[in-house]
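Fig. S4 source data, part A: sequence.
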Amino acid sequence: MALHDQTVSRDSAYLRLAPALFAVTLFSSALLLFAVQPMFTKMVLPMLGGAPSVWSVAMVFFQGALLIGYAYAHLLARTLSVAQSALVHLIVLAAAALTLPIGIAQGFAAPPSTGVGLWLVALFAVSIGLPFAALSASAPLLQSWFATSGHPQARNPYVLYAASNLGSFAALLLYPLVLESMLTLHAQAWAWSVGFAGLAVLVATAGMVAARGGDARASADVVAAEPATLADRLGWIALAAIPAGLVIAVTAYISTDVAAAPLLWVLPLALYLLTFVAVFRERPWFSQRVVIGIVPFLVAPLAITLLGGDREYWLATMAVNLLALFVLALSCHGELYARRPAPSRLTEFYLWTSLGGVIGGVFAGLLAPYLFSRTYEYPILVTAALFALPGAFVGAPALFLKRIWPALVVAAVAIVQPHLFELRLSASAVLPFQIMLVALVGWMLLQRYDPVRLAALAVSGFIITGVWQPGLNVIETARSFFGVHRVVETSDGSYRLLHHGTTIHGAERVRDADGARVTGRPEPLTYYYFGGPISESVAAARSGQGSLNSVAVVGLGAGSLACHAKPGEAWTFFEIDPEVVRIAGDPAMFRFLSDCAPDAKVVLGDARLTLAASAQRYDLIVLDAFSSDAIPTHLLTREALRGYLARLTPRGLIVFHISNRHMELAKVVAAVGAAEGLSTLVKADDKATQFVTDFHAAALVAVLARDAADFGPLAQTPGWHRESADAVVAWTDDYSDIMGAILRKKLGR
């Protein structure tokens, strides 16, 4: 009898510790799970040219692996006892540990020219698939164990999901703000392996505590739970798919102009996860009524800026988009939690919501680049979130059509207008156009209590700003894995421009003031105008060496730099995006290549790989690669510079075009150059101040040389100065500090 009392007392002590133990284990599991996401994606980033789409595809993989993990957890929970499932899970964790430390798997040295997205998914699956899926199973599995533990709080194990998502949130903030700047990727991988081992101990302990509780002590309401209906499952899928797709769309939207880097990857994902913490609890942080009331005030500005805004005020734009993501995800996840089943259906519930996450991720990350010529997935998902609001589908179908008539009218006009007449909105139409958009926002706010009418007006805003833009006429829009490219003309037909994202990547004058077509050798404009810093750099390299036999340019754009070539010089362009190669090579679009350097060679692929594979040595290497306004960080590392130096002639120059609205990169280039024994000159253009009239853009340029004498006349040219790295640490493939570069830019250091 005494022995029995001791056993009961011991079991009671275990149960008292159960909530804290399970919360800590779930927190730790999520911490590891979401730390590995930015860490491994950063490892892969250099292989794909630093494109923001890498993170979008990575998110699809993570959601797919999460689905596999949840299916595995559901299978264990339905077929095995707690003790048996704990043993199986520990074996799986041990097998995953054999693949550590994480790293890029063999056989993935270079991406293919087509099917990059699927290749990237395969790379992630082979490299980290097993440990990620094993970790992802922990959340539903541990919650199901806790539900059968016999603890009084086991009646609502869903609250433990908040602890899991809090761990995810912590990981996503710690990585870019602390870990990325403190540890190299190699050190991060080993630290993560140690954490994985510690987690296995916590899982074993939690399994033991739950097994002592026993399945027999599961409460009666859990045992008698009603099976989920088809409507229940479809609702779970939809409410999970919309926010999952939104987080990918928002991430691509805000990171395109800054940098494909963990800092801007994790902010949207952290907010997305925080919504689970906020609503998966007995008392949500915000009532659903308050959340729904805020939605119109964030969607209204999005409706007139997503497709037509120039993002001049980047911080404000980013804040609005992140807040909108947070509130729309809150509304969907709040409804999802309200529809949760009894604890005995917990693993099934997570399985279906995970499937929804995969569907949303596949749509936004894999299908959208092939389905749409622009980033239409973002406004589509915003509209879907509005239709998911309560009351959207109340009433007869005829009433629904009556409520969406504004969108139907605007869509019909947008479809038929190009077939009936040409509409060119001049720059003078900007003010009336903006007044109309403000009026539309006001109308949306007046209709904020009707989710269907609100959605219809938002769609109207998306269509109006996406189809008609005063001052510009779209010639062609093309989309690839690396972004959206638009060829546009000014409303008077004088200039043709190439946009990537929100940044101009080249401009050509196509008509004179009298409207006649411009003939002859085109003049390079924007950053590449004659007399600008890039032009001076090319001239200095030519003067210092007597002549230029061969020149390498990383980044093609519209091909503007081709018109800096002289007869007898062999110029080679290295470009990763096939759509850019097609556009620049088409004389009907731009004539720089065809008229200035028709014999120039264009090499398709990531320049880090293709330039290194070249047998040629170059007198001048120009780094002019951009993704919208963001410079791929893997082109600014010591390893990258060593590759350039291996292809550079003894007295050659390396020119970095580092114009950027959001990061201070001159000191980064100087630090990398100094680490490799090079001198650096930098110039910030102060002459190009009349862009709207002459299309000359002010460039920030850094030039590196082995010897100061190789700069030629550049050192004496006004505006050029020696750049020191100060306290900036040279970036490597293993280490970069994006946050530091952003802060230096914003603080003017």
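Fig. S4 source data, part B ends here. The CA atoms of residues 462 and 621 lie 42 Å apart.
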